[in-house]
Amino acid sequence: MPPKDKNSSREKLLDVTFSLIYIHGYSATSIGEILKEAKVPKGSLYHHFDSKKALVMAMIKERLFPKMDLFFNYNKQEGLTVFQSLKQTFVAMSKNKNLINFGCPLYRLMVELSPVDSEFDALLLTKYEEMMQGLQNLLQVGIDSGEFTTQLNSKTFATFYITSVWGILSISPSVSSSKQFITHIKYILTLLESYKTN
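The structure assignment produced for this chain is given below.
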C-alpha cells in the first residue's frame, strides 16, 4: 500500500474535520466551514465522501481512533512496571494542551452522537470497549505478575479509571487546567498504589 499523501485533498479534509469537530462538535461544524478551512473545492469533497456523515465516519476511523491510542496508551512499556507505564501515560496526557482544554474527543462525540445515530454509536462504542479491555488487560498483567494484590478488580478499576479521567477532562475549558488534571491523576495513582504488593 503506497504511503498517504498528506497534501492530498482527502487527507486535508480528514485533518480539518477532526480539528473542527473536536473543538466545536459535529452539529456546529458545517461542510462549508470544513471546505473553507481545508481550502478544498466542494467537488473534491464529494469525490471522496458522499456526505458529511461519511466524511466524519472516515475521520473517526483514520484520525480519532489513532489519536485515542496515543492519548490513552494502555501498553506496558518495556523496562517499566504496570504502575510506571500508567504514570507515564498520565504525564503525557497532562502535557497535551488540546486534551486538557477540549477534553477527550471520543467522549465528546459519544455524548453528542451516540443518542441520535446508531451507526455512530456502534462505531464509537468499539473504541470505548477496546480501550476498556486494553486497560483491564494491563491491570491484569500487574495482578498476574504479583505487582498488585488480587484484591484489585481489573474490570472495576478500569471502568473507574476511564470514567474518572473523562469526567475531569469534560469540565469547561474556562476552569480546566493541567494542574487540576495532575491533582486528579495523583489521586487515582495513589488509589492504584494502595493495591501494590510492595
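Interim note for the steering committee: The mean pLDDT is 92. Residues 25 and 109 are 7 Å apart (CA to CA).
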